[in-house]
C-alpha cells in the first residue's frame, strides 16, 4: 500500500506549464486527483469513526463526550488527529485516569468495528483489551517499565 503523501505539490508558473511535456503534466494532474480521492475517503472514514465513537462512549460512560480534531486542518495527512474526551459536568483539565481509560477503551472498541489487524497499545490498555479482542489481530505493546512485563 502506498503511503499517503502530504499536499506538498509543486507550484508552476505559466511559462513552466507551457514548457512541460504532456506526459509530465498529465502525471501531475493524476497525482492531484489521486490525492483528492484519498483525502475524501479518509475524511469520510474519520467522520464515520467519530459518529460510532460517540455511540460507544455513551454506552460505556452514560454521557461522556468525545471528538477528533486534525492537528493540521488544511492537510489532514501531515500531523495526525487529536482525540479528546470530556465527561459530563467536568472541565477538560480535570479528567481522572479512570475516565481517560474508559475513553481509550471506547476508541479501541470503535476501531475494532472497522476490523483492523494491528493495534498499538500501552501496557495498561493492553492488559485490558488483549483478553477481550483476540480474533486475527496483532498487538504491539509499548512498555517503559521492565517490571510490568512480569
From TrEMBL:
One BP term from GO: mitotic chromosome condensation
The entry's keywords: ATP-binding, Nucleotide-binding, Nucleus
GO annotation, cellular component aspect: condensin complex
MF-aspect GO terms: ATP binding
Coiled coil: none
InterPro entries: P-loop_NTPase
Protein name in UniProt: 13399_t:CDS:1
Organism: Funneliformis caledonium
Amino acid at each position: 500500500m502506498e503511503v499517503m503523501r502530504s499536499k506538498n505539490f509543486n507550484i508552476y508558473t505559466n511559462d513552466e506549464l507551457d514548457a512541460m511535456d504532456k506526459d509530465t503534466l498529465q502525471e501531475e494532474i493524476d497525482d492531484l486527483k489521486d490525492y483528492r480521492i484519498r483525502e475524501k475517503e479518509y475524511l469520510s472514514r474519520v467522520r464515520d469513526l467519530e459518529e460510532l465513537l460517540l455511540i460507544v462512549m455513551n454506552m460505556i460512560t452514560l454521557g461522556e463526550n468525545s471528538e477528533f480534531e486534525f492537528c493540521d486542518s488544511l492537510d489532514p495527512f501531515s500531523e495526525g488527529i487529536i482525540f479528546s474526551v470530556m465527561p459530563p459536568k467536568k472541565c477538560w483539565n480535570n479528567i481522572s485516569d479512570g475516565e481517560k481509560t474508559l475513553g481509550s477503551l471506547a476508541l479501541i472498541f470503535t476501531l475494532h468495528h472497522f476490523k483492523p489487524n494491528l493495534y498499538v497499545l500501552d501496557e495498561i490498555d493492553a492488559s485490558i483489551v488483549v483478553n477481550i479482542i483476540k480474533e486475527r489481530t496483532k498487538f504491539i505493546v509499548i512498555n517503559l517499565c521492565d517490571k510490568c512485563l512480569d
